[in-house]
Design a protein that fits this description.
Strand content: under 5%
Radius of gyration: 28 Å
Largest sheet: 3 strands, antiparallel
Shape: globular
Length: about 650
């Protein structure tokens, strides 16, 4: 099952890539460096001319490196294959060298020659020329941006010969936007207010209402907490205590910032330049979480900042030049040097000597495998070295560079993460792997969102509004009858339909609490737990629920575990014992009919009214028993155990 699903997604990716190339290329038959040439070179040439080994001084990973060439001079000459050393050696079967090496096929040779003769075009160059459909440097109304989003996606689908799904129904949209924005389902009363409204702009108004609620910040704060925190929190090596409570506080701190409308650049600065103790500043935990064993490390900080705030992966470049992502070891340690004097753990951060003996410089440690002891100066990613600076906190000039609007990484990284959060797939996927070999599936859309986010001064709520008001976000997850699996997967990959996602553990727990009218709902098992934490008591209800219902961080459509979730939902005595919310309804409206009560149960769990068959079946069920409360509890149990309850459609 897993293998087949993976093959469908891979097919979808290929289809998306082909459609993207068709949409942006005026010469669809020309070879492109990233799409066509580098896969051939990676398979046949980079073992000898890549990051770890560069025979003859030749590096074939990037266009500048090819143009620079090696000991024999430039490897390629634009537009002149027969004058290019690379092509001549490939054509004569001199590359790959060695009797035991398989020579390039005629098709692969044609790719290389076609590319050189065409002037060595790249996907990146084509992407740089795409039209985002709205001018950069200007903040636009959410409706304008939403319309541009839809234009990008609809053109993309048209090029691929696919039709998007229909607009989702009001009840599905209601539940989707409540869960995505506030992290919980609506109450029955909130559902009725929306579903019975005839205002033409009721969806836009609901989005605005939800973004103004404190629950928006709470949900997005804990989302970022989970993105930053490793799966297993670091221990302090003294009894194995983990900073679970402190990680939750960090999420709450972020949530308050989000709810207050604080800009992403300001939040980023507060995280990355923090000093002091965690009791005063919960964001202190960041550097301990991304370090080693709860202690800060310069290279851990560099890798985490690159992934989280820049959307790039530097982890392989810690020990050597990365032959596939074009990040050098010097670039990794050049970034690490900015954090070379940051020291502490998840309780306290201060600026001292740290691993850097000289301000603005760091020595590659013995654990890095290559170039041990080499001193690397603080250098902005793909930019210049930091100008001479006396002892001080080098994180500040780094953050100045990071959040600048001209920085090509910062705005697009956040926009891509938000898109992933709402669509279960990034425009660049994986979301922290921006590179030429992994271009955006929708380059114009990526540019549009990054431009808009920067022009809005990194207004998070504004970007939410723009995306949630789009037709793409408001599409149904239901495909028409007869749609086969590859076409369905292609529609999902190209954002022509909404995927069905699982609620995260936090979403599900809060939604169950709301459905049962019990903010202290406790679903622990009878097993005695040994969970120990600085702020997490043994058998903490939240922690146990997190561990049982955690979702796959890289695939929001899948659990990380197996059957444990189902057993909890169908067998837990608390979920069979009744609802405080139902008790209150019956106390407030003792004469409510069976039909009215069943309708209330549907609205308070599935955010919709039952259809005629569902209503008839439920009413017949409750009327078979003289005890009015127990059958209603059975209906509630049935509703929360439907896949419709646990899914975001």
């Amino acid at each position: 099952m897993r293998k087949l699903a993976g093959q469908s997604v891979f097919f979808s990716f290929l289809l998306a890539a082909c459609a993207s190339t068709t949409a942006i290329s005026s010469a669809a038959d020309a070879s492109l460096l990233e799409r066509d040439v580098l896969p051939v070179l990676t398979k046949n040439c980079l073992g000898c001319h890549g990051g770890l080994v560069k025979e003859g001084g030749l590096d074939l990973r990037t266009l500048p490196a090819m143009l620079k060439g090696g000991e024999s001079g430039p490897a390629v000459e634009s537009g002149k294959a027969d004058a290019s050393e690379l092509w001549k050696r490939i054509a004569n079967d001199e590359m790959p060298s060695g009797d035991d090496r398989e020579k390039l096929s005629a098709a692969d040779k044609a790719v290389i020659k076609n590319w050189v003769e065409a002037g060595m075009p790249t996907v990146a160059q084509r992407h740089a020329q795409v039209n985002p459909r709205l001018p950069a440097g200007k903040r636009h109304e959410p409706a304008e941006v939403a319309a541009a989003i839809d234009q990008h996606i609809e053109q993309f689908l048209a090029d691929a010969g696919l039709s998007p799904t229909e607009r989702t129904t009001d009840d599905e949209f209601l539940r989707r936007v409540y869960v995505d924005v506030t992290g919980r389902i609506p109450t029955a009363e909130q559902a009725v207010a929306f579903l019975d409204s005839d205002a033409p702009d009721r969806r836009a108004k609901l989005i605005d209402t939800l973004l103004a609620r404190a629950e928006f910040g709470e949900q997005f704060g804990r989302t970022w907490r989970d993105w930053i925190s490793p799966p297993e929190l670091p221990s302090d090596n003294n009894g194995g205590a983990q900073p679970i409570g402190q990680a939750k506080e960090f999420g709450s701190w972020l949530g308050k910032k989000f709810a207050a409308g604080e800009s992403w650049d300001k939040i980023t600065r507060d995280v990355l330049t923090v000093q002091g103790e965690i009791k005063d500043q919960p964001q202190v935990i960041f550097f301990g979480l991304v370090g080693e064993g709860g202690k800060t490390t310069a290279d851990g900080s560099a890798r985490a900042v690159a992934s989280t705030f820049l959307g790039v992966q530097l982890h392989c470049a810690r020990c050597h030049d990365d032959p596939y992502r074009d990040w050098s070891q010097a670039q990794h340690w050049g970034m690490a040097a900015f954090f070379g004097r940051t020291q502490g753990d998840f309780k306290k951060i201060e600026i001292g000597k740290g691993p850097s003996k000289t301000a603005g410089e760091i020595s590659i440690p013995g654990s890095a495998f290559r170039n041990v002891g080499v001193a690397v100066k603080a250098t902005f990613l793909r930019g210049p070295e930091l100008s001479e600076q006396k002892d001080g906190d080098l994180r500040k000039p780094f953050v100045d560079w990071l959040v600048a609007k001209e920085n090509p990484y910062f705005a697009r990284s956040f926009a891509n993460r938000l898109w992933f959060y709402l669509f279960a797939r990034g425009i660049v996927n994986p979301i922290d792997d921006f590179r030429e070999l992994n271009p955006p599936s929708h380059p114009g859309l990526m540019k549009l969102l990054a431009n808009e986010f920067a022009a809005s001064n990194y207004d998070i709520k504004h970007l939410f509004r723009c995306i949630c008001n789009s037709g793409a976000y408001q599409r149904s997850s239901r495909v028409s009858a007869g749609t086969d699996a590859p076409a369905r997967d292609a529609l999902t990959t190209m954002f022509g339909r909404m995927p069905m996602r699982l609620m995260t553990a936090d979403m599900l727990f809060d939604s169950l609490k709301q459905a049962y009218g019990d903010p202290k709902l406790d679903l622990r098992t009878n097993v005695k737990h040994s969970t120990v934490g600085m702020a997490a008591p043994v058998g903490d209800p939240w922690l146990e629920f997190q561990r049982r219902f955690g979702t796959n961080e890289e695939d929001p459509t899948d659990f990380t575990h197996g059957i444990a979730q189902m057993l909890t939902m169908i067998n837990h005595p608390r979920l069979l014992a009744g609802s405080k919310g139902l008790d209150k309804l019956q106390a407030d409206a003792p004469r409510a009919s069976a039909e009215e009560t069943v309708e209330w149960l549907y609205l308070s769990t599935l955010s919709r009214r039952p259809d005629a068959d569902e209503l008839k079946e439920a009413v017949e069920y409750v009327q078979r028993d003289a005890d009015a409360a127990q059958p209603y509890n059975g209906v509630l149990w049935m509703l929360v155990n439907r896949s419709e309850f646990i899914l975001i459609r």
